[in-house]
Design brief:
The structure is a homodimer of 433-residue chains.
Chain A lengths: L29 E6 L6 E6 L2 E4 H6 L5 H12 L3 H5 L3 H15 L6 H4 L3 E3 L3 E4 L7 E4 L3 H11 L15 E3 L5 E3 L4 E2 L2 E4 L8 E4 L3 E2 L2 E7 L18 E8 L2 E2 H7 L13 E3 L6 H4 L3 E2 L18 H6 L1 E2 L2 E7 L1 H5 L5 E9 L5 H9 L10 E3 L4 E4 L4 H4 L7 E2 L5 E2 L7 E8 L7 E2 L3 E6 L3
Parallel strand pairs in A: 6-21, 8-16, 9-27
Antiparallel strand pairs in A: 1-2, 1-5, 2-3, 3-4, 6-7, 10-11, 12-15, 13-14, 13-21, 14-16, 17-18, 19-20, 19-25, 20-22, 23-24, 25-26, 25-27
Amino acid sequence: MLDHTHLAARRSFVASANGHPDFPLQNLPLGSFCTAEDEMPRMGIAIGDRILDLEAAQEAGLISGEVAEAVEDASLLEGWNDFLAQGPAMRAALRRQVFDLLAEGSAHQAVLAPMLHAAADCTLHVPMRIGDYTDFYAGIVHATNVGALFRPDNPLLPNYKHVPIGYHGRASSVVASGHPLRRPKGQRKPASETEPSFGPSRNLDYELELGIWIGPGNALGESIPISEAAQHIAGYCLLNDWSARDIQGWEYQPLGPFLAKNFGTTVSPWIITPEALAPFRIAQPKRPEADPKPMDYLWDSADQAHGALGLELEVLLLTPGLREKGLAPHRLSRGQASGLYWTPAQLVTHHTCGGCNLQPGDLLGTGTISTAEGFGSLLEITRGGREPLTLASGETRRFLEDGDEVFLVARARKEGFAAIGFGECRGTVTPAV
Amino acid sequence: MLDHTHLAARRSFVASANGHPDFPLQNLPLGSFCTAEDEMPRMGIAIGDRILDLEAAQEAGLISGEVAEAVEDASLLEGWNDFLAQGPAMRAALRRQVFDLLAEGSAHQAVLAPMLHAAADCTLHVPMRIGDYTDFYAGIVHATNVGALFRPDNPLLPNYKHVPIGYHGRASSVVASGHPLRRPKGQRKPASETEPSFGPSRNLDYELELGIWIGPGNALGESIPISEAAQHIAGYCLLNDWSARDIQGWEYQPLGPFLAKNFGTTVSPWIITPEALAPFRIAQPKRPEADPKPMDYLWDSADQAHGALGLELEVLLLTPGLREKGLAPHRLSRGQASGLYWTPAQLVTHHTCGGCNLQPGDLLGTGTISTAEGFGSLLEITRGGREPLTLASGETRRFLEDGDEVFLVARARKEGFAAIGFGECRGTVTPAV
């Protein structure tokens, strides 16, 4: 499975890439960027603190064969949507070519130099045009914590361990890291009030999730067998499923979350490819004996053996008070991602088992993920707001206040391999208008 | 509000339009079509049993001024998405020009002749590229009927009369009338069984809804005031929200319907414009005294006075047995649409009140609508399958069987105006694979 693009010893001629916490030569994530001089979004690849303009490299003849044709065709159409529709072999071929171009000893350093833009001067976009966005609920620790707030004795509903629970989210309001997040207004009716009222959400929260980018996908009426599901995953990102808990509590029965979730969803703008993550695959944790075995359509021994992702996740909170006093962000959670009850492949297969068509650029969220040291939302950390956090600045938090900035971080490490990261996924809450 | 395009006495030189049950000169709905000779989708307008190739008419210089520019620009981009992003004034201007072109006495009959394709020879597509699809639950009769199956004493949840209930649907699987509908497979667990199982849905149903096409829409973080909401409705269609009741019953808690609804949604392919429907606007039925008054953000007296639609709806079922015996389709319901608790404008405003951005081509479903003579789904008609229908063929139906074809029909009539119709919305159930 692994080729030369994983050799930890290989270094890039882009000096900042060597030892870069996110984007060493072994990562090469895919993104859509523009510069101050040229606001037209282009396909780019991150390397250290630079972004390679892939379209310029292709135009200069530095990409060859079928890959060059695919890049050229895609650049004229919908960018990564069209390229990633080509599937894993094409994606891996691009990776190998770009690895060799950017490695130390590359014969093309001089010609590449003007195509390597300082990332700090670029704007990053949502990397694919999202057709549909689906959010799952695969984090069993989160589902148990949230269920326990309502049903202490019986937190998980009877379907949870049989069927991957998911719902359709809003694609239009998915934004790239850095986009401000305006506090939504809406109807809410706390238990302490007899009538609902309309106004800014009082219980604004984040949710730590992973996103799964789809390509190529399936035709309507067909389904993707579990053994083929991994071929339809184009890559991964971080995903903050901002949630207005008070709006959600009032509106969500009987059809699920709606305005409580559709005012904004932040993704990290780099597509971390399955090729880059290959060394970090791990076995899906064994289910407790008492749990039902997944149904046949969701069961694949290879997927169970190495279909999960070994990732360290972290959530940081920077408040106005911390910022003012020059204090470090408050760490809300950290550690190995844990408790995803279904693998990404199982989510893909379940989504299509009734014939629903997935398309290149569709985005799936895993559901909120807890880590070894902490939960993935304030709802869980403060027990529904009843146990506020106290920060080093003296501020307290039940939920997010205006001016708060939330950072999600994901890194993969393994002895003998270069560590890689997902890059920035952050958003600042701005006041309701 | 009404201009010469509503004069019932005006006739078209396209003979089939005069007295046509759906598409007289006074309708002029917007669609996307292709012919056997040219498979590239084009913007078209229905007139009788013909389709005017609007792009050809524009190229021939028959459309003038700003409208011509807008048609030309749109034809190069995403068709009706881009045209309808221009808003109501542009749409109304196009209507007036096309009305005059197609009216009796038009000076352009000869040059138009080759641009008027026989509709029977054309293929119709979903008329806009759908960004996001949202389904509401505004049919209070349906919500009460369905609620009563689970909670006989208390069918409506406490939020129902305060907040327009809705959820995000799946855009990728929205298809145009005539597309076959494959029976989905999925997990289901009837009350009579102890364990869930996987297989073809046994309780496949239709739902009679209206669809609302959006254009222009709002920016993320902003909202559309109720007084401006109508300006963002580009038109209407029929919508069949096919539903697998057994899959729904097992999967839907706590996050709402997912695979039970995302295997296919059928729309009628013509966008019926607000201009065509203007004579048929009616007052929103007064709420019972005991009901809460809508909150301020949802309340507009003009919207209450003429923001609802006066439509006759009908659902027909043609089964293999009826077809074989040459019998007429079975009428499942008929009559004036009734019981939409919220107007289309209220749905639009509610959707955006938290800052969620609507975009041109977004589609909203109203929720299932009952009529004076019948309910909008088999779930209601057969009381959850407990009281099967008997058809003239001797067949019985709890839910839909393979080979069944469902037709939705909508017509608007009013003394002194030409009646108009929405055109075909049909789909045939094909077996699971």
